[in-house]
Write the structure tokens for this entry.
Amino acid sequence: MMNVPLNISTMLERAEMFFPTKQVVSRMKRGIVRHTYKEIGERTRRLASVLTSLGVSVGDRVGTFAWNHHRHLEAYFAIPGIGAVLHTINIRLSPQHIAYIINHADDRVLLIDDDLLPAIEAVKDNIPNVRAFIIMTDEAELPETTLSPVYHYEKLLEQGDPKFPFKKDLDEYESAGMCYTSATTGNPKGVVYTHRSTVLHSMALGLADTLGLSEKDVAMPVVPMFHVNAWGIPFAATWFGTTLVMPGPAFTPKVLAELIETEKVTV
């Protein structure tokens, strides 16, 4: 026990083992979608396996350009779970800065929400190192896009392995995630998080003097997952077996208030 590394995948594995029936609730365009942590675990492993088949390896950066929902949560765990680095891209940045941070991070794959496609299409000619674009959509078919090569998230998952093992030989001091500033002066600056720092931060969110998250809570991260990892709530809530409520693309007071009431949000 003393030599077990503090790796991000252990947090999801704990949820799979101890809280398999607790839910992740996402408000998507077509309505409420519910998954258990057991299902999230299987979907995350499928994603990890298909990213590996696409050539993503240890140390590679994988960018996400997405809202708060279950698919983004799966990326939060699948990417570091194979030793790659999760790069959450701020959708509010200018096209110039979006292209800059994709290139500076050297993202090899991008996972993109379908309604955010135009922002990436606008810079596609300036991000030559991206090898694959994965579109996260509720639709049965891919939307028309100028991006290439492009993949349908759910169809990729159908090909994935639900029992795919996360890497266990990762050093806890290896890079696991990265965020960029919003460039108040000059170009955005990148900050890298390790597996260890992410796990310790998640642990801190369970303390009484912070958020005090527990399995009894229902948490709704309203800080975007593309901004400072939504204050770490997606990671911590999963680890503690907290029910997660994701507001999806509709960050409006009305939607948030409705979710707080209907899902009995406590944090």
Q: What stands out?
A: The chain is about 35% helix and 20% strand. The longest strand covers residues 107-113.
